[in-house]
Amino acid sequence: MVFSIIYFLLLSIFIKRGAAEFKQIDLIIHQSYLDPDCFGTSYSALLVNGQFPAPTIRVSKDDEVEIRVLNQADVPTSIHFHGIRQYGTVESDGVPDVTQNAINPGSTFTHRFQLKGQTGTFYYHAHVGVQDDTVQGAFIVENNNSPYTSKTYYDGPYGYDDEFILHLSEWWHQDFFKREEYYLGPGYVHDPNADSVLFNGRTLYRGESSSTQRGCEGHSIFDVLPNRTYRLRVIGGNTFRTYGLGIKDHNMTIIEVDGELIHPYTTTHLEITPGQRFSVLIHTDDFYLRHYEENDGFSNSDNMYAIATSYRHRHRATGHTENGFGFLRYVDYSDNIKHKIIHKNFPEVPENTPRDWIWPYLRPLEPPAPWLYQTPDRTLKIRTWTSVMQDGSTRYAVNGKLSHKISHIYDSHTTKFEKNNNGILNYFTLLKMQSVTPERTFGAMDLDEDGFEPTLGTYPIRLNETVDIVLQNVKSGMNCLLHPWHTHGHSHYVIASGDGEYVHERDHDKRNFPHPIYKDVTVVYETKVDPHTKGCGWTKIRLYADNPGVWAVHCHITAHMLQGKMFLLEEASDWIDTFRMYK
Ligand SMILES: *[C@@H]1O[C@H](CO)[C@@H](O)[C@H](O)[C@H]1NC(C)=O
Ligand SMILES: *[C@@H]1O[C@H](CO)[C@@H](O)[C@H](O)[C@H]1NC(C)=O
Ligand SMILES: *[C@@H]1O[C@H](CO)[C@@H](O)[C@H](O)[C@H]1NC(C)=O
Ligand SMILES: [Cu+2]
């Protein structure tokens, strides 16, 4: 065994410091071969502490954490804590070429930050190449200040008996570096569908038949007791498709979205794009009474309820995914449980619903920030479309500009990552900003009409500005796709969406989300196309510039991000030093 037992534990040290604690965690990245869907062939993938999904990190509100990432793989890597706002600690955000250089093989990077005021369901993942297929794990921030005592667990007004994590992800029968090469190279045609949809890193590619294979763990099974309330934390670690998710004969009551508690909303299914998280409460029924009466005893499959995923917003295919399911298993009865799984009883998961799904109906528990109702200080309109480059590769242009870092990301599986395509040593954006801080005040910067600053390739915004960002879908080639956009360093409110093209004079006052949630991933849906501009749907989000730094805003479909569907907010770079938590 090359790797000692130490890799298989989450190494952590907790030190009490008043109410909040100081926690130290080590994450060790190394290369391995995985066959999570029992396909029969393993492919090269990166693991964290020997695990996939990566180990769950649990911390509490206002805790301070120090997380060391040791890169023992032979490719550069980096880790991002998705949804954590990193107030005053932009240098810990984990975006290669932006807030740090990628971590070289053999090197270590130390993240330090405080969970200021944030609680809920987050995750951490690699931000280099398609490493996030497997380098991703839950990051849970507990809310310890509950006034309630009669249930086992509480979060705000919600009590529950136990909780589960359902971490969705996708798996391709291909080595990770080859997949990255495909997306960024001249052979790229379109995003290929994943071979498997995994729940907590598991499924059966061929259904039941391969379950006898040695070392094959099969579907994820969540054991429950009758007449209990469970919190299911659903993490959208899928990196490409958007999925519906339902549980046979069980409703789900949504109580949390992207770390924000909301008023309870009961639904039969979720819609989960890459990067989104939900907590739902599930009430298990009184299994004994119902089933003894109906069936006069149990058949072997009576205690299993399928949790199934379906394709949404996918051209040319709908219905359940081929293998993206797991099971709720009622365990509290005397028969021997046989692990026989009957697939026929799937939950109905409705096919595509209109733009915006149920988003307009969800309501936050917390009152909104006052700036939600102000006139914005700045509106950035971001149009992105694909172009085919001279070498045949495909790239997204952002307002007509190509990301200056693209070729460099392409090389990330070689050790040449520190050079850009001109062979000149590259320094990441944050460092460059710091070295020129006196000049990067607003009056001194020469911005393009769309708000872009060409020397560092950022969109500068001022301290304390209310900033609206219009994310405009543009039809390129055959399709206009759904894109889930993620904001680093901030949660945001989604305030409006529309068909076709956003026209500021006409649409600037539009609002169709009466009580938006403060979240960090927002979808731009595919709508009908404006024949003149090819605009095919837009969504407007709003954030408040109280966190100086340089923050990536990108599509959370990993391949799209690698192809350049990303831009940088340069937020009050003249204030970064003042706001810095660790001087
Ligand atoms: C279910 O649980 C509730 C409270 O947790 C209890 O009052 C009720 O009697 C239980 N139902 C049955 C059938 O046991
Ligand atoms: C789910 O909720 C609907 C609407 O509230 C209700 O009619 C239905 O009986 C519920 N189903 C279950 C299994 O609880
Ligand atoms: C930004 O807002 C904070 C909090 O409201 C205030 O204390 C500070 O003076 C403002 N700074 C600037 C430069 O506007
Ligand atoms: Cu996208």
From TrEMBL:
InterPro entries with a match to the protein in the record: Cu-oxidase-like_N (IPR011707), Cu-oxidase_2nd (IPR001117), Cu-oxidase_C (IPR011706), Cu-oxidase_fam (IPR045087), Cupredoxin (IPR008972)
Pfam families assigned to the protein according to its UniProt record, in alphabetical order: Cu-oxidase (PF00394), Cu-oxidase_2 (PF07731), Cu-oxidase_3 (PF07732)
Annotated keywords: Copper, Metal-binding, Oxidoreductase, Signal
Record domain Plastocyanin-like: where: 43-145, 163-291, 431-571
Keyword Transmembrane: no
CDD domains given in the database record: CuRO_1_LCC_like (cd04206), CuRO_2_LCC_like (cd04205)
Coiled-coil ranges from the UniProt annotation: none
Keyword flag Endoplasmic reticulum: no
Signal peptide: 1-20
Recorded GO MF terms: copper ion binding; oxidoreductase activity
Superkingdom of this protein's organism: Eukaryota
Family: Belongs to the multicopper oxidase family.
Protein name per UniProt: Multicopper oxidase-domain-containing protein
